[in-house]
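Posting this for the archive.
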Amino acid sequence: MTSGNGPNFVQITQPDQIGADIRRTLIECWTEVSDAGGAAGFPFTPVDPDEVAQAADRIIQGLDPRRSRLLLATVDGILAGWLNIRRDLNPLVAHWGTIHHVQTRLAARSQGIGAALMHRVRDIAHDEMGLEQLHLAARGGAGLEDFYGRLGWKEIGRWPNALRLAPGDDRDEILMILGPL
């Protein structure tokens, strides 16, 4: 998946904006990234496509312009990557959001798709959702803290050995923040 064009972005804010084709490509992407060892929510490979579909459906059903949005990146009309941004409407924490499931299709790796998604979601968070900061949790041992660090995110803490990928393979969960937006 190479193109001279940068990615195009599609923001989805309501469940009825997801047709069967988009749902299918989201599930395919999530399955592909997870099976390749990507830190996108399913650590044990191979993933069960039915479990991925159920998780995708929960995200889709929770879409709401104020609380949860999907951001899709396409290249030449093909899904190259996606993420989910969420916020809690509780007034104590409604000023910040959390980024979930950042992923790029294998054929689109090393083309700046992930960075482009993260730059675009920052604008959406600030300009459209009125958020002041963003949070995310990244799996240790995958180099993700370096990727996000290059984009301006700061590590604010770790949960040591919080994630068990296999016996003897415990990883830190790295807590990161981007703000003020």
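The chain has four helices and seven strands. The chain has a mean pLDDT of 95.
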